[in-house]
């Protein structure tokens, strides 16, 4: 049986995958927050698909172009931007990354000569990230092979009906996230609710 570590009251305590499913779906949270068996199966399948697809694309890019999937995402966003540069905040919003993740990624890419950080002329506190000639060469060399791999691993695996369903499901979840974002920000700003 595959064992998955979970957080519990006992340090180092683990549950088998079947027991984790039962606890996650049955006992974690109130009755309205439980996932039924089908929901749990779909949620796990989504994560497995995402993780395995990301791993395969990353390995392909590393092997054939010498860049990682995160490198490719940053370079593609900058290559498509006006003047092939974006403020750090704009790049974070485009990629939907945390500030620290982007800072570490840009530092590594800058060391390899793929991007440079310039002080923003309009705002001395903000940095602008710009793609270099080497970065542009890398992303152009990788783009066609990357698109072919995405087609082979993702699009060719799905029927037109499945693609339509996937597109609709993705749009519905993104809309839910957009509508929930203001209330989540208010909850974080007000801090934890302590019992009276």
TrEMBL record:
Keywords: DNA-binding. It holds the Pfam family MarR_2. Residues 39-175 form the HTH marR-type domain. Coiled coil: none annotated. One of its GO terms (molecular function) is DNA-binding transcription factor activity. It comes from the Bacteria. One of its GO terms (biological process) is response to stress. The keyword DNA-binding applies. This is DNA-binding transcriptional regulator, MarR family. It comes from Micromonospora avicenniae.
